[in-house]
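Illustration 12: ATP-dependent zinc metalloprotease FtsH.
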Amino acid sequence: MKFSWKSILLWSLPIIVISFFLWQGLFAPITSESNNNTANSRMTYGRFLEYIDMGWVKKVDLYENGHTAIIEAIGPELGNRIQKIRVELPASAPELITKLKNKQINLDAHATKNNPALWNLIGNLFFPILLIISLALLLRRSNNTPGGPGQAMSFGKSKALFQIEAKTGIIFDDVAGIDEAKEEFEEIVTFLKKPEYFTAVGAKIPKGVLLVGPPGTGKTLLAKAIAGEANVPFFSISGSEFVEMFVGVGASRVRDLFKKAKENAPCIIFIDEIDAVGRQRGTGIGGGNDEREQTLNQLLTEMDGFEGNTGIIVVAATNRADILDSALLRPGRFDRQVNVDIPDFKGRLEILEVHAKNKKIDTNVSLSIIARRTPGFSGADLANLLNEAAILTARERKDKITLQEIDKGIDRIIAGMEGTALIDSKSKRLIAYHEIGHAIVGTLLKDHENVQKVTLIPRGQAKGLTWFTPSEDQSLISRSQIKARIMGALGGRATEEIVFGDSEITTGASNDLQQVTSMARQMVTRFGMSDIGPLSLENEDSNPFLGRGMGNLNEYSDEIAIKIDKQIKKIIEDCHQKTIKIIKDNRVIIDKLVDILIEKETIDGQEFREIIKQYTKIPKKI
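Figure caption equivalent — predicted structure in token form:
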């Protein structure tokens, strides 16, 4: 850690002040030899005169211009031995000197020892000057250093990171898999560079662009690319940096941010995680005086108030567009909403090519195969996948990344870290039957996804895992596909029932049963796929401020609720009976696959299907 002389001086300020007062209080008063602790006791002036009259005083030393005396006396009261006693003398006592001379007592006067001039200068001049200099440096640091110890007067200043020429090191060529969003922003960059192309036909520059999408899809990366391409001033700030515990600070920071932006227009303001400040109004405890609402009101005014902000483009990113205030989303504020979704196969391949540029990958590894095996992965997931594979390669002292490290990376991202393999026992065999049950039911159902891998190697909380390859298009799912997924999830429990009996059923299917119940309930209450009819009895509009699912009252009668429960039970029981039949009809195949799985611990999806083909026909997947 490096320390500058200013920081050292600032940290030493309390020590300097304490030392000054200690010096003044302890050392400055020492002006004579009277404080040498030679006197063991004290005596009053009247008693001192009595001692002189009785002839007990043998010697007197005067200090501090005759105000203090140290006497040497001997007598019965003093144990007949000489003792030194301190006496405070009155301001005027002329008879004392005469009495001492008459009694022929040895008298000695000691002159006062004054402090040297240098010490007086240090005590009266040096320390105050040093204190003033230290305070000046402290105030200067509070004004120049963001977040410094003296920022009490600058809470209202914007914390936006400002760059005249944003050198993020990222351009549009580095952003892959979101071509539609890139096209939108390439147009905006062109508007900033050559506005005459658009103004010639009466077009106006958009005031705001909202990036909406799941986490890790590249929203912030796209904003960095805009900064790298536009060559205009770029302000970057997070939505959470507007809001503080002090009332009015957020609104003040919004005003300060847009004031700086107007001075540097045309420019770009990027607000990351805008949902931290742009949530729906009317939900705060403080009502209109709520700090977050005041900040949002100021942001709405600055984006489209009475004064136009020509040349300022606000780019914001969020993955919670459902909780944003409607006034923030209207045209004139955020004119465009760009969806940045999970990439498809082509997008994943482009993203892998971007992140593979600086990786040493074996020539036998095909990026297209990796892209096909990772549906549902975001851009951040794919970047993390190649990084995990590179870490595993370095750990195993290999020169290049192979498909083995890629597979381990995929497994780790999906299911967690690899655990210790199970020993061959009853528990291992039961888990093997459970996982084979999932896999064989999914394989023999036409509407279920293909098996990708079955393994007994524990990962995370799971003792064994069965992976299915999800289809590319998950937007529309048929009733038969949902039922197939329910039956696939019930395959593990059904196999335990057939092979081991009801008394040996384990808790391993608890998560499967939760998924089954959820899917069946959605079929009845949301998708209209039951005997109740095409009714939507529940919706996804939950209150984001009370928590998902909280605060939603049932909008149907108790009679309908009973029917819903009966339909859910009917769907699950029907799927369960069909699953039991599949397990019984293929018991020989299941026993064979379990033996292979226990021996190898992992069976690839292709190998799994080849084994099943030896015994029965696999339906063609849709």
